């Protein structure tokens, strides 16, 4: 889920404003503590309300004095992953307003806990941060945790005998092996003189690097030290403080893509080096030293880069090949001797080895060694100065903004006006960073990009005087940026293809006209992959054998049909989850097998919106004679509090109101809405929910998690309506914190994902798959084979999480290696226009074809028969029905070895598992199948066999029938 962080100032600065105020107002501080003390004792006590009201008045007085001007108009600062909302109401809190009371209580708890933590650690409450954090920084206070861990270890180790390190076991540098020539040796100096006086001077890069040559601060900091030296040599402004007033790169600033503590212990990989370089405004080209990379190509790159001072080649190689101790290492190339074919390695581990000359062929061999930690060969990175990263940085704007707030009105008039009305030049907006088509690496721990700062530039348009910048994109909605600082921080970005638009808008809401008043940026967020021995098929420990559970015999008073109600959206895009539900209804209605017979069960579908009969789902349900009930939920705007920005905020208020109405240990099903003291519009809302769910009373309610507060509202409504059992199917990861009766996951990956284990709760959890109809999805002749075309195909939604930008990037590379290849993309979705524009930008529209979604299975099989290779580019697929359907027709699969895909994709058996998150690796996998028809046939045959063994619909669907019957009877 993509969320917004505070756009105006970092969250730590916001908290500092509150700390400064509370320190200067001792009475308010005592009132705050009294309020929290009362809250912890009894949240319903009258003293609680009085204490909170006293503290609130003090905050309101402070807010009126000018803090309101420094606060963002939308969103909230994120602390520990949760949005912190600042209460704007100036009236005392009423004890009857449960929601506002709880919001204020939570705020005071967070404030006092923060103050107590600062006192415990000895930190001054009004201390301002002395370093500016980069946009990708994780903000986990890693150094503080490291210091606490170190102190704890020292305390635990007091009195214990510590092994002493003898002087004989230490080292003062190492001797260079014979293959290496020390730079300062007579021969090394001679090589330097010859290279610099050579006709084609390949020593230009030496001088900027020599100016910034440093020694790594830690034994494993070779990558960080190399990057700091290169960025300083390229004269890149880090945009944050180093020491004192100076902005300068040093190793401790590189803590955004990986933790410094981890880097100190294990070093960094080539992928992490690339991520750090890109996050700090450098254009990178990276090459793995695989079989397709030749020595001549390497030599050409070295010659080109060493002849200029604007490009630096950084090598990731194995020291062992050079005869040195240790293994993986990073070093920049400081020059090239053409006659001797040698390169100068400016080794940052100067305590170990001096800078030295070495044969280019030997370095090339050292790069070809496999990095055991990721299972990939090493390689090189070319760092280039970004021509667009020349304007003032975020820190510069932040410092100017802070200084301007202290100036008088007369001094501010000295700043040249930039109003649109005062300028004859047309307004412009452009994105400074991230660069268009950037690839960013997500955190392997969280599976998301913790933070990304979007820095943009505006000319001849003053914000907010002339208007604002509107950000928009899939998974984000629309955001109005109304602050002078040209920077927005986004957090929690999951892997996917992102297309964001920046549009200048007048204050009256009309779009600013002009050729450059709109800017676009495309990024790919990818997930680091881990190589594993094989997919987790049915051997994974999970509660899969549902049919082995003891059957409970219950006496029936009378014969009646049980009810299974699916809750679904009718207007949303047709996806795999809806398809699985239709498979269940169709199979049980047709009674295809005795095990799946459900003649005593009635299916229905409920939607909380107006039913549109134009959707694929609605038409199919009508053909199956399944009742569809639409209950649109609408709320008058007059009931919205000013702090509520959208319907989700209102829904959160409605959910919290019900929770606060429950007595101690009271169950939801026992709550009577008429007996509560809730406002009338709240009671009316929940009555409409309960009335809609009454059709499922004493039945089973099935929902697919939508990852928002609506899931929790639906569960509460089902409990109030006395539904017998609630089943939640994991259509997505990251469910909200709910408690249901049964959780069904399509894969072991989804069921055991940390986001599921930490949020969703159920007494029964199963892995159940609907499977595919192997009689419908059958192998056929490849239609295009006669024409000589090789078709690489995709079927599915055109959405962010599908990462289709990777497929188009691979197609761009495929254009040069396969002239008879075609890419066929079938599907509908919110990114259709953006993907077409990206293909046009890549100049590959003549080989890429976009086809509207095909929802008839017979027609879909015909489309699959036109393909030779099927690709699935999503990193965190819960399973992948579209890929299984393609495998059923005998198509080999190319996909990343991650997520639910690992449960059916066998590398080298039924497809090719891409183990590196890059366009080059994906292209290489496709190319291997394109060039080898026999391999395609072998993998396709095994793909069909995989479906027949593990994913047949007639084998999987009976388990759903058994589950529903046991829950009903």
From TrEMBL:
Residues 166-388 form the Peptidase C83 domain. Pfam families: Glycos_transf_1, Phytochelatin. Signal peptide: none annotated. Keywords: Cadmium, Glycosyltransferase, Metal-binding, Transferase. GO terms for molecular function: glutathione gamma-glutamylcysteinyltransferase activity; glycosyltransferase activity; metal ion binding. It is an enzyme of class 2 (transferase). GO terms for biological process: cellular detoxification of cadmium ion; detoxification of copper ion; phytochelatin biosynthetic process. Coiled coil: none annotated. CDD domains: GT4_PimA-like. Its EC number is 2.3.2.15. PANTHER family: GLUTATHIONE GAMMA-GLUTAMYLCYSTEINYLTRANSFERASE (PTHR33447). This is glutathione gamma-glutamylcysteinyltransferase. It comes from Lagenidium giganteum. The lineage of its organism: Eukaryota, Sar, Stramenopiles, Oomycota, Peronosporomycetes.
């Amino acid at each position: 889920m993509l969320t917004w962080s505070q756009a105006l100032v970092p969250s730590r600065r916001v908290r500092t404003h509150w700390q400064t105020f509370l320190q200067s107002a001792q009475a308010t501080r005592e009132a705050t503590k009294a309020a929290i003390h009362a809250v912890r004792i009894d949240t319903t006590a009258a003293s609680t309300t009085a204490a909170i009201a006293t503290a609130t008045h003090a905050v309101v007085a402070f807010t009126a004095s000018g803090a309101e001007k420094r606060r963002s108009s939308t969103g909230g600062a994120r602390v520990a992953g949760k949005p912190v909302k600042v209460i704007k109401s100036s009236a005392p809190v009423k004890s009857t307003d449960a929601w506002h009371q709880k919001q204020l209580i939570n705020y005071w708890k967070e404030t006092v806990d923060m103050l107590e933590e600062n006192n415990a650690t000895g930190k001054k409450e009004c201390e301002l941060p002395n370093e500016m954090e980069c946009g990708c920084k994780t903000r986990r206070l890693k150094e503080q945790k490291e210091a606490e861990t170190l102190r704890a270890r020292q305390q635990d180790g007091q009195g214990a005998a510590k092994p002493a390190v003898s002087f004989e076991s230490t080292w003062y540098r190492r001797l260079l092996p014979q293959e290496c020539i020390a730079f300062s040796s007579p021969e090394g100096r001679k090589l330097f003189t010859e290279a610099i006086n050579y006709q084609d001077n390949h020593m230009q890069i030496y001088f900027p690097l020599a100016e910034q040559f440093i020694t790594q601060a830690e034994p494993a900091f070779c990558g960080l030290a190399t990057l700091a030296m290169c960025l300083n040599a390229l004269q890149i402004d880090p945009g944050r403080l180093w020491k004192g007033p100076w902005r300068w790169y040093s190793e401790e600033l590189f803590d955004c893509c990986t933790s410094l503590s981890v880097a100190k212990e294990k070093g960094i990989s080539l992928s992490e080096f690339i991520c750090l370089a890109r996050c700090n405004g450098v254009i990178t080209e990276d090459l793995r030293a695989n079989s397709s990379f030749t020595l001549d190509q390497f030599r050409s790159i070295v010659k080109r880069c060493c002849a200029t001072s604007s490009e630096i080649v950084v090598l990731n190689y194995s020291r062992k090949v050079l005869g040195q101790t240790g293994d993986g290492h990073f070093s920049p190339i400081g020059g090239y001797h053409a006659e001797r074919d040698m390169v100068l390695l400016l080794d940052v581990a100067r305590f170990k080895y001096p800078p030295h000359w070495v044969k280019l062929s030997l370095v090339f061999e050292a790069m070809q060694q496999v990095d055991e930690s990721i299972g990939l060969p090493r390689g090189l990175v070319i760092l280039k100065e970004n021509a667009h990263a020349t304007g003032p940085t975020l820190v510069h704007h932040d410092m100017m903004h802070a200084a301007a707030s202290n100036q008088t009105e007369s001094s501010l008039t000295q700043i040249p006006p930039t109003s649109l009305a005062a300028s004859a030049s047309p307004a412009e907006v452009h994105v400074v960073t991230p660069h268009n088509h950037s690839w960013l690496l997500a955190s392997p721990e969280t599976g998301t990009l913790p933070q990304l700062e979007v820095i943009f530039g505006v000319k001849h348009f003053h914000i907010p005087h002339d208007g604002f910048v509107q950000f928009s994109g899939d998974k984000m909605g629309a955001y109005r940026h109304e602050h002078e600082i040209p920077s927005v921080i986004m957090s929690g970005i999951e892997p996917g293809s992102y297309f964001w638009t920046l549009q200048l808008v007048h204050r009256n809401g009309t779009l600013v006209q002009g050729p450059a008043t709109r800017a676009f940026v495309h990024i790919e967020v990818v997930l680091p992959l881990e190589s594993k021995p094989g997919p987790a098929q049915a051997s994974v420990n999970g509660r899969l054998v549902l049919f082995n559970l003891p059957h409970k015999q219950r006496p029936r008073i009378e014969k009646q049909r049980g009810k299974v109600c699916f809750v679904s959206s009718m207007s949303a895009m047709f996806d795999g989850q809806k398809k699985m539900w239709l498979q269940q209804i169709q199979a049980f209605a047709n009674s295809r097998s005795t095990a799946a017979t459900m003649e005593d069960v009635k299916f229905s579908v409920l939607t909380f919106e107006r039913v549109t009969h134009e959707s694929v789902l609605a038409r199919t349900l009508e053909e199956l004679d399944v009742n569809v009930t639409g209950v649109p939920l609408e709320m008058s705007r007059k009931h919205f509090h000013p702090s509520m920005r959208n319907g989700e905020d209102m829904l959160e208020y409605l959910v919290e109101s019900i929770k606060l109405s429950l007595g101690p240990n009271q169950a939801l099903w026992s709550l009577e809405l008429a007996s509560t003291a809730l406002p009338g519009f709240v009671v009316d809302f929940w009555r409409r929910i309960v009335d809609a769910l009454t059709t499922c009373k004493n039945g089973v309610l099935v929902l697919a998690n939508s990852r928002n507060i609506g899931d929790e509202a639906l569960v509460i409504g089902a409990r109030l309506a006395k539904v017998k059992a609630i089943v939640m199917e994991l259509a997505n990861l990251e469910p909200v914190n709910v408690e249901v009766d049964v959780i069904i996951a399509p894969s072991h990956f989804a069921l055991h994902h940390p986001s599921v284990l930490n949020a969703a709760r159920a007494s029964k959890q199963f892995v159940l798959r609907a499977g595919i109809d192997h009689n419908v999805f059958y192998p056929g002749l490849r239609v295009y084979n006669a024409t000589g075309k090789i078709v690489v195909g995709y079927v599915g939604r055109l959405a962010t999480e599908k990462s289709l930008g990777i497929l188009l990037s691979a197609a761009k590379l495929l254009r040069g290696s396969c002239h008879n290849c075609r890419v066929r993309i079938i599907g509908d979705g919110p990114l259709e226009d953006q993907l077409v524009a990206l293909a046009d930008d890549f100049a590959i529209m003549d080989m890429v074809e976009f086809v509207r979604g095909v929802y008839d299975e017979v027609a879909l099989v015909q489309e699959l028969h036109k393909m030779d290779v099927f690709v699935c580019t999503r990193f965190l697929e819960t399973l992948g029905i579209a890929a299984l359907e393609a495998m059923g027709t005998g198509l080999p699969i190319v996909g990343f070895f991650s997520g639910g895909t690992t449960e059916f994709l066998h590398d080298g058996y039924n497809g090719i598992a891409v183990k590196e998150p890059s366009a080059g690796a994906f292209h290489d996998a496709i190319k291997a199948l394109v060039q080898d028809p026999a391999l395609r046939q072998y993998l396709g045959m095994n793909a069909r066999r995989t479906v027949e063994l593990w994913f047949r619909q007639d084998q999987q669907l009976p388990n759903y029938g058994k589950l529903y019957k046991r829950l009903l009877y």
